[in-house]
Amino acid sequence: MSDPEDDPTRPTATPEESPVQRALRLKTARIEARPKPPRGGKFQREQAARVASGRSKPWMKK
């Protein structure tokens, strides 16, 4: 498997880019590359129909 640092499609670092800026750029690129959940339609209706987060804590009731 190739190293992500060797990927020719990634944006090249500028000479004045600090190591922290480079790490942040690589991190955001990895996050953006993750598969996204489906949007709209049946999936969104199912999410809206779920129990509210406060209702799922029976120990918080009187």
Explain what you see:
The N and C termini lie far apart (about 55 Å). The protein contains two helices and no strands. The protein has helices at about 20-35, 40-50. The chain has about 60 residues and is mainly α.
The largest pleated sheet is described as: none
Radius of gyration: 21 Å
H/E element string? Answer: HH
Helicity level: 25-40%
Determine the strand fraction and express it as a percent band. Answer: under 5%
Mean pLDDT over all positions: 76
Number of strands: 0
Counting DSSP H or I runs of 4 or more residues, the number of helices is 2
Classification by helices and strands: mainly alpha
Topology, element by element:
Elements lengths: L18 H15 L7 H8 L14
Describe the structure concisely for a colleague:
With 62 residues, the chain is mostly helical. 37% of the residues lie in helices and 0% in strands.
Properties at a glance:
2 helices; mainly alpha; 62 residues; single chain
